[in-house]
Amino acid sequence: GESVGLHLPTLSVQEGDNSIINCAYSNSASDYFIWYKQESGKGPQFIIDIRSNMDKRQGQRVTVLLNKTVKHLSLQIAATQPGDSAVYFCAERGNTGGFKTIFGAGTRLFVKA
Amino acid sequence: GAVVSQHPSWVICKSGTSVKIECRSLDFQATTMFWYRQFPKQSLMLMATSNEGSKATYEQGVEKDKFLINHASLTLSTLTVTSAHPEDSSFYICSARDDRARNSPLHFGNGTRLTVT
């Protein structure tokens, strides 16, 4: 199930199940969205991205959905594996203001074997 | 793939001293780099945009005189935490934008864990 802790929300799933991680973004002017995975003590690692002219994009085992009407992003991970355990961040970027990439709150994913 | 190297990976310093963190793009040029700070169990907060050949742009609430940024070349940006205090202890992460692929996602270093005693 999904729960909200003091800082990062946590999602716990069984190995082999599908995971869905949600994110609300803040700036309606953002036109580029990215999902990153961060393992403990490391920098963020790119997973998948999507531009605002699309509402769905698929990669290997991952799918990103974008709903601009409600400013919502989701990351779907198929057949979740123990190696998927990490913190996942959505990030947004506009095409003005120096193209800054702003990170969302993050979700910690635990995969139970 | 594009690699960003950050050094040191961890550092411990005494209160009142200064610490320099380096961020290098190893196989691409980066006119623009970004510095983030991350506290435990929190998200990455953008501190500043580092621009080669011009002054850095700081986010609201970030003291430019405390966090000195120098973008010395197209492959190197440095962040110096001056007169560090325990509250500056954090995980500092740099990222770089490939000049050949400005619309692509940022490439991140593996961070520097700063502990101020």
Describe, in plain words, how this protein is organized in 3D.
- The complex is a heterodimer of chains A (about 110) and B (about 120).
- With about 110 residues, chain A is an all-beta fold.
- Chain A is built from no helices and eleven strands.
- Chain A has strands at about 1-5, 10-15, 20-25, 30-40, 45-50, 55-60, 60-65, 70-75, 85-95, 100-105, 105-110.
- In chain A, strands 1, 2, 4, 5, 9, 10 and 11 form a seven-stranded mixed beta sheet that branches. Chain A has a four-stranded antiparallel beta sheet with strand order 3-8-7-6, with no helix packed on it.
- The radius of gyration of chain A is 14 Å and the shape is globular.
- The two termini of chain A are about 15 Å apart.
- Mean pLDDT of chain A is about 90; it is low at about 1-5.
- Chain B has strands at about 5, 10-15, 20-25, 30-40, 45-50, 55-60, 65-75, 75-80, 90-95, 105-110, 110-115.
- The model of chain B has no long low-confidence stretch (mean pLDDT about 95).
- Chain B contains no helices and eleven strands.
- In chain B, strands 2, 4, 5, 6, 9, 10 and 11 form a seven-stranded mixed beta sheet that branches. Chain B has a four-stranded antiparallel beta sheet with strand order 1-3-8-7, with no helix packed on it.
- By secondary structure, chain B is mainly beta.
